[in-house]
Amino acid sequence: MIRTPRPSHLAAAAVLLASVTACGGAPGAQDAGGGGGADDRIRLAMLQPPRSGLSPLSDDAFKLSRWSTAETLVTLDDEGGALPGLATSWEQADDLTWRFAVRDGVSFHDGTELTAEQAAASLTAAAEASPPPRILDGVTLTAEADGDTLVVTTGEPDPLVPQRLSSPQLAVLAASAYAPDGTVSPVGTGTGPYELTEVAGTAGATLERFEDYWGEPAQAAGLDVSYVPDGTARAAALRTGEADVVEAVPVGQLTQIDPALIHEVPMPRTNTLYLNTSEGPFADPAVRAAAREAIDRARLVADVYEGRADEAEGLLGPAIPWAADLRDDACAELLGERPEPAQVDGVEISLGTFTDRAELPEVAVLLEQELEAVGFEVEQDVREYQFIEADALDGAFDAFILSRATVLDSGDPVAYLYSDFACEGSFNIAQLCDEDVDAALEEAAALPVGPERQAATMAVEALVLGADAVVPLLHERVVQGESERVEDALRDPRERALVDASTSVG
């Protein structure tokens, strides 16, 4: 169960939320809360509030990772290679079995000790969750302890097991995190340098330095987190010094901010127009082709992103350096076989997107203009993400604009492609179910990390593009704001890390 914030923190949160509403400032805790003075604390302005009560089995896990409160058995280097985390080493025992040595001397925030048994219990809870974490889409995984060793077994050979275990959705938490009803609370149950101590719903959260951390202790006394979906308010928080680290500063606000506070982070993130392939107008491939041909990517990059983005040639962008070189002649041939655009005079379509990423409503306006120019009649539906995600996944829209990270979970695009385009994918907004795509995904997933897997990945991309299930628009370069007083904030293309033990304020 999530603990109730102390009255002092609730009062502070109320005052700060009022300041956001009144003058565009970001929330930031006024009460230091026992870890040191307010000047020793880092104030974070986050893009989105939690979607699932900060459950680590949901996308909220990435907040826990960015706050350095929940940790995983494996971490990733810049190239997506596996590095030790709560596991110090591992080996593949056979095609289906991996053995991980669990780190000694690690304490959970509730005072209990990390063991191979508890690591197995955390993985088992994730594997048995419904729905399962995205990283386990299509994967059968079991975990058990063998003395001090964690044994992970998969139903099929899976060369990506270490990378999978780096997903924030597979963080290892204390036994006290897991309630009998299946809910999971990260409050006071992680292993990171910061302990999550208080949660104020969709307003914010408080973290304190964990003095018994197994690694180097945190430089800051704690973190004061505020959720600020409004991009103008986030920019104002940076400009006025009310926040130290600010996620996703809108491009349209940059002229009002000191350039020294702005840091551009190249992202493996693609803004994509998903088309509902199962029902409605876009069930017809020729109508999908008409939408594809209507889009002017250069205009979107210039007018909405002011040149701070790259036009998309496919789903995987320049942050994945090998992708462009592997779009070969076979891919071009497949794309050339797509149907000619249909005449769409008067065809009515619904177009959805969300407000949390400030540029997306502007993208929707331009896409509506371009689609209507070729004959579509467009009805827009724009909401906060937490209120629109379920409808998008249920296929309630004919078209949906999404900003999507393409290597978010494992450092490898296959997990994203499966989630978004497999028949059984958990994030299949396009409602695509294609035997050739599923077969290509299965082939790619079975290959070891390396050139063959990369080529197979691009074959999947070509099939998805050949079906016109999506229209890739552009690849983002997310802008992160950092105040003058913060040092060593993390600029992570994968959006897993924002602050760590070395981040400080002065």
TrEMBL record:
Secretion signal, residue range per the UniProt entry: 1-24
Matches recorded under CDD domains: PBP2_NikA_DppA_OppA_like_3
Coiled coil: none
Residue ranges, annotated region (Disordered): 484-506
Alphabetical keyword list: Signal
Domain Solute-binding protein family: 84-426
Keyword set includes Ribonucleoprotein: no
Matching Pfam families: SBP_bac_5
SUPFAM superfamilies registered for this protein in UniProt: Periplasmic binding protein-like II (SSF53850)
Membrane topology term: Lipid-anchor
Keyword Signal on entry: yes
Subcellular location: Cell membrane
Similarity annotation: Belongs to the bacterial solute-binding protein 5 family.
Protein name: ABC transporter substrate-binding protein
Originating species: Nocardioides kribbensis
